[in-house]
Amino acid sequence: MDAQIKNIDDLFIDDIIEREGTTFTNDPLDYGGATKYGITQRSWTAYLQQHVTPGAPLPISVEFINEADAREFYRVMYV
């Protein structure tokens, strides 16, 4: 496959990030609470506990995740 052609998984993740945005939010009126890239703190914590080797260099708070972290989260949890 041509390296410039994205696979369907990447397109799915691109769409989520485009819709959800890249900014950290923690609106007290939003049921999801602390969120970044569409990932809630609750989901990020579950991901760390279930799928990441302890001591891996990943932030504990969703506030500090980057796009690469978010993309891997979506690949592991949903794709």
SSE layout and pairings?
Layout lengths: L7 H13 L14 E2 L2 E2 H11 L15 H12 L1
Give an overview in words.
The protein is mainly alpha-helical and 79 residues long. The chain is built from three helices and two strands; from the N terminus they run H-E-E-H-H.
List its salient traits.
two-stranded antiparallel ribbon, mainly alpha, 79 residues, single chain, 2 strands, globular, 3 helices
Number of helices: 3
Q: What is the succession of H and E elements?
A: HEEHH
**Tell me, what's the shape?**
globular
Rounded to an integer, what's the Rg over CA atoms?
Answer: 13 Å
Measured as a percent range, the helix fraction is 40-55%
Sketch the major β-sheet.
2 strands, antiparallel
Classify the beta-strand content into a percent band: 5-15%
- Low-confidence segments, given as residue ranges, are none
Oligomeric assembly: single chain
Number of strands: 2
Main sheet: which strands, in order across?
1-2
Structure, briefly:
This protein is mainly alpha-helical and 79 residues long. It contains three helices and two strands; from the N terminus they run H-E-E-H-H. Strands 1-2 form a two-stranded antiparallel ribbon.
